Amino acid sequence: MQRKLTDYLMVSLKGMAMGAADAVPGVSGGTIAFISGIYEELISTISNVNLALFKVLFQQGIKPFWEKLNGNFIVALLGGIVVSFVSFMRIAKYLLEFYPVLIWSFFFGLIIASIYFVGKQITKWHLGTIVALVLGTVMAYYISTLPSLENNTNNYFLFIAGAIAICAMILPGISGSFILIILGAYKTLSNALHDIDVKKIIVFTLGAIFGLLSFSHVLKWLFKNYHNTTLALLTGFIFGSLNKVWPWKKTLSWHTDSKGIESPLLQESVSPFNFEGEHQVVFALVLMILGFLTIFILEKLGSKKQ
């Protein structure tokens, strides 16, 4: 696909939006990729990384290899994701600690709009798509209710966590960061990035690469053979994730780490008027609308020819 420099800049901006979303436990960068119009190209590009690709490198040279790899797209997108994820992870941690209702309200509006835009791409409804929609919704809702495990710093575990989380990160509706929390690896990764623990970062990255290359082939096959059913399943994932991003929560149990710092272990959604604390309903509604409109802007950008 021929792109100009400005097109690649736009891809990087979309990558930054994906990275920012993935840094928040409960929001999926895959949703942003889908709405912004690069999801299927992303999955196809990742799945093309195989032995045949490297044969092109050795037999034909770097330029044909880079073109077949869709290298410019990968660099532009990955650059945006990494810069945004690493920087926004700290910002997200601060916002979730001091302004949880407001940040969750913004993402709630974002998810609501995402359901519409992903769902409208289903061109034909039948029993299979309906079952897939219900199944995706139930699965995502169930995942959103799971309590997190104790923090685990084992390198082998971190590799597995990276492989699982990256699969969630490229699935619309299922948050990779939230999966890391459930597995007990979010804090380990956050600390590794903060302390620049190269060994742990490399282990996690290798696990993520392994998971990404494996899972992308499955997704590519599903889109090729069961396009509408796959879209319905992904729409269900997004719909089921609404429970996780509901702004008003009641904490049922807490986890205390080795430093004595408490964090919510198990929460349930409540009415804003039953919320223990300042419900900020007016500001929350404003931010929901802003989140909703953000998706309209991304969808408009995604509909333009790249």
Summarize the structure.
The chain is built from 15 helices and two strands. With 306 residues, the protein is mainly α.
Descriptive notes:
- The structure is a single chain.
- The chain is mainly alpha-helical.
- The protein has one domain.
- Helix content is 72%, strand content 5%.
- It has a two-stranded antiparallel sheet.
- Strand 1 and strand 2 form a beta hairpin.
- Helix 4 packs antiparallel against helix 5.
- The protein is globular.
- The mean pLDDT is 81.
Terminal-residue CA separation: 8 Å
> Main beta sheet: strand number and arrangement?
2 strands, antiparallel
Number of domains in the coordinates?
Answer: 1
* Total E-strand runs: 2
Helix/strand/pairing class, anyone?
A: mainly alpha
Shape: globular
Low-confidence runs (pLDDT<50, min 5 residues)?
none
For the CA atoms, what is the radius of gyration?
Answer: 19 Å
Give the strand line-up of the largest sheet.
Answer: 1-2
Give the oligomeric state of the chains in this entry, treating copies of one chain as homo and distinct chains as hetero. Answer: single chain
